[in-house]
């Protein structure tokens, strides 16, 4: 037991190394910019004051979003998705996978769940012992199931999911802005030191290295930001981009896409005044989502979650508040003939 505990402690310490490295780089960049550039190199007071104001605004937004991403605890499934005691005992005693699935299906039919495994089975986490809500996945690093999990990011030492995905996107945006401000204001002094128009002082190394580091970080962070903005527009997580969610009608990579404006609102909220600040404004509570093919009744889904043990404290909003925004859906009716039986299939498609 002791070696295992010590190993886990060492692992937790090691997991902080990337985040500590980022903070050390930011700390050095602050010294290089404020002291070596603005104090020792720039001679014009007006230019110095202007640079310092712009720099500190970008730094404040960057640090605010970054630490919100780090310290926001990942949201996990509520009690509504835990197996009732009787079904849990039957599930644990049963050794046949098929019978276990029947037990899970019996419980899942009363929950707003529409995705399955690739084999069509109910998604269940044996470690957390919960039926996974749509878009929920287990993180082996955080050792928990995370609602609308996107990925585990080593640079923030945290899981990026429903509770902090907006913060993560803003962190990338403001990190790009921070690097851009440094590059744009340092470039003229970088050229002067590089071409020896400025005398060799202790500031030269810091100015040259600061520009190179900011430029490299800007290129890498902007690339990552562009990818996640694309994901937001498509209403996909990183996991869903690599492995399409499976619905009753099969895999559908666009299953949760409701149109660009509503996709953006799902992450950033429906009030533009909250978009640019790292405050929680995402729609819904991460347990249920409107899809292109399935219309979720918000009152029914909320009632089911409450009856299954979800208290108001477990969520930040009604479970299906997003469903109230679904408009202009067109119901199509198709008929499939399977042998001697005719099956009617109702499908909703986005405009």
Automatic annotation (TrEMBL):
Domain of life assignment: Eukaryota
A cellular component term, taken from the record's GO annotations: membrane
Membrane topology according to the record: Multi-pass membrane protein
Transmembrane segments: 20-42, 49-67, 167-191, 203-230
Subcellular location: Membrane
Keywords, in A-Z order: Acyltransferase, Membrane, Transferase, Transmembrane, Transmembrane helix
Catalytic activity line of the entry: L-cysteinyl-[protein] + hexadecanoyl-CoA = S-hexadecanoyl-L-cysteinyl-[protein] + CoA
Domain Palmitoyltransferase DHHC per the UniProt entry, residue ranges: 123-242
Record GO terms (molecular function): protein-cysteine S-palmitoyltransferase activity
Region ranges (Disordered): 326-351
Positions with biased composition (Basic and acidic residues): 328-341
EC number(s) given by UniProt: 2.3.1.225
This protein's record includes keyword Iron: no
Stated family: Belongs to the DHHC palmitoyltransferase family.
PANTHER family: PALMITOYLTRANSFERASE ZDHHC16
Domain notes: The DHHC domain is required for palmitoyltransferase activity.
Name listed for the protein in its UniProt record: Palmitoyltransferase
């Amino acid at each position: 037991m002791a070696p295992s505990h010590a190993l886990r402690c060492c692992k937790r310490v090691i997991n902080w190394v990337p985040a500590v490295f980022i903070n050390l780089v930011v700390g050095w960049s602050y010294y290089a910019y404020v002291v070596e550039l603005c104090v020792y190199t720039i001679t014009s007071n007006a230019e110095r004051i202007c640079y310092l104001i712009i720099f500190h605004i970008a730094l404040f937004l960057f640090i605010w979003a970054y630490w919100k991403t780090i310290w926001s605890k990942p949201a996990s499934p509520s009690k509504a998705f835990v197996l009732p005691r009787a079904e849990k005992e039957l599930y644990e005693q049963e050794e046949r996978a098929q019978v276990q699935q029947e037990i899970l299906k019996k419980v899942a039919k009363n929950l707003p769940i529409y995705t399955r495994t690739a084999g069509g089975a109910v998604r269940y986490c044996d470690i957390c012992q919960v039926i996974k809500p749509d878009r929920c996945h287990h993180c082996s690093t955080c050792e928990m199931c995370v609602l609308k999990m996107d990925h585990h990011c080593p640079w923030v030492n945290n899981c990026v999911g429903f509770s902090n995905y907006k913060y993560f996107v803003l962190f990338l945006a403001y990190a790009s802005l921070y690097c851009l401000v440094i590059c744009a204001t340092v470039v003229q002094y970088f050229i002067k030191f590089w071409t020896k128009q400025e005398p060799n002082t202790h500031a030269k190394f810091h100015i040259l290295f600061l520009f190179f580091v900011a430029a490299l970080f800007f290129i890498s962070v902007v690339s990552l930001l562009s990818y996640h903005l694309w994901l937001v527009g498509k209403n996909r997580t990183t996991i869903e981009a690599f492995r399409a969610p499976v619905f009753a009608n099969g895999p559908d990579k666009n299953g949760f896409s409701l149109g660009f404006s509503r996709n953006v609102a799902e992450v950033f909220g429906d009030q533009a005044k909250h978009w640019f600040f790292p405050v929680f404004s995402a729609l819904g509570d991460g347990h249920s989502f409107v899809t292109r093919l399935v219309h979720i009744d918000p009152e029914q889904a909320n009632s089911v979650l409450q009856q299954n043990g979800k208290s108001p404290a477990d969520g930040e909003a009604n479970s299906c508040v997003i469903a109230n925004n679904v408009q202009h859906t067109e119901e199509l009716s198709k008929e499939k003939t399977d042998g001697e039986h005719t099956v009617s299939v109702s499908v909703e498609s986005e405009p």
